[in-house]
Specification:
3 helices; SnoaL-like; Nuclear Transport Factor 2, Chain: A; alpha+beta; Nuclear transport factor 2 family protein; about 120 residues; NTF2-like_dom_sf; 6 strands
């Protein structure tokens, strides 16, 4: 996959989450896509990922919102993409994702996030 298409797919994917748009998210996913969320949940298959998105939008787990999800770094290397991001919803944190692609879709997303506020030595 060329770098432009890979970047375009991940930006559409993130925008779909921010817009609460399952159709937009689905358009980027390989049918066998795997999503490993930063809290540890593994969701297998594009349709199952979309069902999970719809549950969150419907509030099945309580209040859910995305106020902000900004990509701050995005690097594509062949069939891999690495991105760093700032997220704000019920909580705020920084994170990163490793994305793998098939020929034309997202094959997997593995998310990581900070669990404590960032700090530097001597600033505690």
């Amino acid at each position: 996959m060329d770098s432009f298409r890979a970047e375009q797919l991940i930006r559409i994917y993130v925008d779909g989450w921010k817009e609460y748009n399952p159709t937009k998210i689905l358009s980027t996913l390989d049918p066998d896509c795997v999503l490993i969320e930063s809290q540890g949940q593994i969701i297998r298959g594009a349709q199952q990922i979309i069902r999970e998105v719809e549950k969150r939008i419907a509030g099945e787990y309580g209040p859910w919102k995305i106020s902000r999800w900004d990509i701050t770094t995005l690097v594509v290397a062949g069939s891999l993409c690495f991105l760093e991001w700032n997220f704000e919803g019920q909580r705020s944190f920084e994170g990163a994702s490793l994305v793998r692609y098939t020929e034309d879709k997202i094959r997997s997303v593995r998310e990581y996030r900070t669990t404590q506020p960032l700090w530097e030595e001597g600033q505690q």
